[in-house]
Each structure stands twice: as structure tokens, then as C-alpha cells.
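During the reporting period the student researcher (J.K.) took over the structure-prediction task from the postdoctoral fellow and processed the backlog of single-chain submissions. One of the processed entries is reproduced below for the supervisory committee.
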Amino acid sequence: MALEGTNVILREQRPEDLQLLADLRNDLDTQAWSKTLPPDYTQRMFLTQFEQREFSYDRDDGRFIIESKDAGEMVGYISYTGLEMRWDVTIGIMIAKDFWGSGLAIDALQVLLLFLFEEMGVRVVRLWTHTGNARAIGSAEKLGFKVSYRQRESIFKAGKRYDNVNMDMLREEYYTLHPDLEDNLPPL
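J.K. obtained the following C-alpha cells:
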């Protein structure tokens, strides 16, 4: 099932996308994390992950390729993981450098947030990044995320120490920011 935004389409992963995924994960800027060093992801690793997925009606994760509507090309990857139905989920995104600052990441995040709050009924959406990734923090804040906690100097990347920053958005906050939507999920 494809999800559609103003400027992007979030679609299922396909075998022909594997090189983009490997390229994004091997680029220390687009992966924006230091726990995966050295950057040695291969297409074969992603193919194995792709082939080992099992069918389930109760998916606790979703992985999407981000396509630009205008250019019709892949610009990145967005996902949700660890879904606790009707409770919380963690999201992540990687955008190819050629598309940084284009607004496509914000559009993709908006599409995924709408899906998670409206269709999956989550109460909290979480993400994490580090203080060296000002672009990610700024985008998250623009969407309404707030810093929920910080682990000081827990990331070492490119010879510098950064804080791990965890951010989240509550269901009530999302619907306050989107008064055009009605929250039809009963309160806890």
C-alpha cells in the first residue's frame, strides 16, 4: 500500500531499491549515527533482510521508500519500528544528500505521522538522533516533536562527542497541531 503526501509517495521496498538502501546506510551523514561503524552494508545484507520478512496481519514495523512525485525518483527511506498497537512506535528516516533542504523529508514525515495516528491509533511517536544532527532536530521540532530525554556525551562521531536526543510527540499534541483532523480514538 502506498501512502501519498503533497510531494512524496511512500511505497513498499522492492529488490531494485537495495542499492539505495546500502548507499544511505554506508554514508555517515545520511545514517546520522555512530553505532553502525564501520559502514559496510551490502546489497546482499538488505536482500537477506527483505527476503526474511514474514507475512503478518499484526505488523510491528513498516519500511517505505520515499519517492519524489515531481522527479519520480527515490529520495530516501522512512520506517516505523517497535509498534506497540494503540500505544507507541519509533520512527526513522534517511534522505539522500541531493534532496536535503527540499522539504521532501518533512512531507514524508507528515505522511507517516498521519498514518500512525489516524490508522494505527498510536498514542506516542518517538524518534532519536544526536545533537550533531541539527537538521533532524529542527525538522522534528517543526513537526511538533519535543525532547523527552537526553543522554549526555553518549555518541562519538567524527572525533566529537554528542548527546543522544530522544524526541516524541503525544497524540493530543498531534491533534492540537492538526485541528482539521478529529481524534476518534477514545481516551485511555
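The committee noted the following: The radius of gyration is 16 Å.
J.K. will present the remaining backlog at the next meeting.
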